[in-house]
Write a structure and sequence with these properties.
By secondary structure, this protein is mainly β. The chain has three helices and 13 strands, in the order αααβββββββββββββ. 10% of the residues lie in helices and 65% in strands. A hairpin with a 6-residue loop joins strand 11 and strand 12.
Length: 230
């Protein structure tokens, strides 16, 4: 009920009554705080009651910054859900990126990608199997396209996987895996941005292999509002 009242107040009065919560003003304060860093914050919750009581909470944050030859990205996400007071999802994920580009003549770069996954509601055959997964990727690649509307990068990486099982009996395993990756960014009409990263994992020691692909389509409506499909 306070929003219609605030709409009729002057600028000075609105500032005294919490002008911080207006999207444009909040974005301005955040830009002053983070400076050259850019980011995104998302929160969602869902409470459903029918044949069972279900609650879901998701929180996600993203920060990035670019220099002349370096780029840094930091991402974090937390998902929690329960059904009839029983926890079904309790997952924390975090990942980062540091990419250093060499001379424009070579169009080559090196990058480091750490990924952390902490699952506190994992079960195998009905038995708790909570774990912490740490993946570290060190790669070298070449930028085939470097344009504002199109970017294409390819390369190879060495990956180190560490898994700690935190539910009794605790254990730790470690292994290295090779991979090849392709990354694309494409700006489409109507303010759409399509980004894709595909990774093919292989091993010279074992004959196992696998494929991972992440696609995100983002639509920016205003300076503070955007929507994405991932």
């Amino acid at each position: 009920d306070a929003l219609p009242i605030l709409a009729d107040l002057g600028e000075a009065d609105r500032a005294a009554h919490g002008d911080w919560f207006y999207p444009a003003v909040l974005a301005s304060h955040l830009r002053e705080f983070f400076g050259p860093w850019r980011g995104r914050l998302a929160f969602s919750t869902d409470v459903v009651t029918d044949t069972s009581d279900r609650t879901t909470i998701s929180l996600e944050g993203r920060l990035s910054r670019k220099w002349a030859a370096d780029e840094v990205q930091l991402n974090g996400r937390y998902d929690y859900s329960e059904t009839n007071a029983l926890t079904t999802t309790d997952m924390l994920k975090a990942d980062g990126l540091w990419r250093h580009s060499f001379s424009k003549k070579s169009n080559s770069f090196v990058q480091y990608r750490p990924t952390l996954e902490w699952n506190r509601a994992s079960r195998k055959t009905g038995v708790p199997a909570d774990y912490v997964l740490l993946q570290q990727e060190i790669g070298y690649g070449i930028s085939l396209l470097i344009r504002p509307e199109r970017k294409l990068r390819v390369g190879v990486s060495e990956n180190l996987f560490d898994v700690w099982t935190t539910s009794p009996p605790t254990s730790h395993t470690s292994r290295t895996v090779e991979s090849a990756f392709i990354e694309t960014e494409l700006r489409l009409p109507w303010g759409l941005l399509l980004s894709d990263r595909g990774v093919y994992y292989y091993s010279f020691v074992s004959q196992n292999d696998g494929w991972e692909n992440r696609v995100e389509l983002t639509k920016k409506f205003t300076e503070t509002l955007s929507a994405a499909i991932r």
